[in-house]
Amino acid sequence: MEKPIYKRIVIKMSGEALAGNKGFGLDWDTIKAICNDIRAVVAMGVQVCIVVGGGNIWRGRSGVGMDRVNADYMGMLATVINAMALQDALEQLGVEVRVQTAIEMKELAEPYIRRKAIRHLEKGRVVIFGFGTGNPYFTTDSAAALRAAEMEADVILSAKNVDGVYDCDPNQNEDAKMYQALTYIDVLDKGLKVIDSTAVSLCMDNNIPIHIFGLNPYGNIQKAVCGEKIGTLIEGVKE
Ligand code: GTP
User: Fold this and answer.
1) Which of 95, 105, 110 to mutate to test the pocket of ligand 1 (most atoms within 8 A of CB)?
2) Mean pLDDT of the 165-175 span
3) Residues 141-166: tens digit of each pLDDT
4) How many angstroms does the Cα of residue 227 sit away from the middle of ligand 1?
5) Which domain holds residue 21?
6) What is the CATH number of the domain that holds 98?
7) For the residues of 114-170, what is the DSSP string, one character each?
């Protein structure tokens, strides 16, 4: 078996990915396949945190005409549904999981406590962070960057429906080229929308690489953990 190159990772899972081909809601076959991949990574001894989006249930911007703050809180609630779905699927595979939420929902999950999360990781449990950062005007990309900094994670693995970062929309332009590597500044300068600028800045300030790749074919999370060159790696300039 290949060796992992990271000790502690944050997986940023897009909400849309959990919908599989349905485009909305939860597709259990997809979720099981993703969780199998995560189980294999845990079995390698890698400490795993997950930050999940909510776009399969609600997008802040889908509330046209709605108060932005209300819409953002609804999106954060959607991430908790996804966190609980992932918890259930992972537990069915025998993986120990703890869900922590950014605002207290004590009846259904632990509140976010940094030191407790770190102890869970040390004990080999997967920790899923729900409710984003707990604040409106931030995305779950920013939540992943924040938690990665707090957990002192080695990398953010951003598993998406697209297989990497392109110079233009690959669905509309057949000549679109995928970048294998980018610097944080490249992403900000080029205005690449694949990850939001707040998250990129936070990762740049804390030297956390961001590896963006497609969830499909399943097994890509293991490949990324073992340092295989898939997707796009965003990091600082090497000195
Ligand atoms: P250790 O400290 O290693 O024993 O961790 P642990 O998570 O097993 O112990 P703890 O007694 O803190 O938790 C036991 C169970 O209760 C776990 O499934 C936790 O996720 C859950 N739990 C702990 N605190 C809370 C909480 O505030 N709310 C909810 N809903 N569950 C909690």
Assistant:
1) 110
2) 88
3) 999 999 999 999 999 999 988 899 99
4) 33
5) 8-235
6) 3.40.1160.10
7) HHHHHHHHHTT-EEEEESTTSSTT--HHHHHHHHHHHHT-SEEEEEESSSSEESS-T
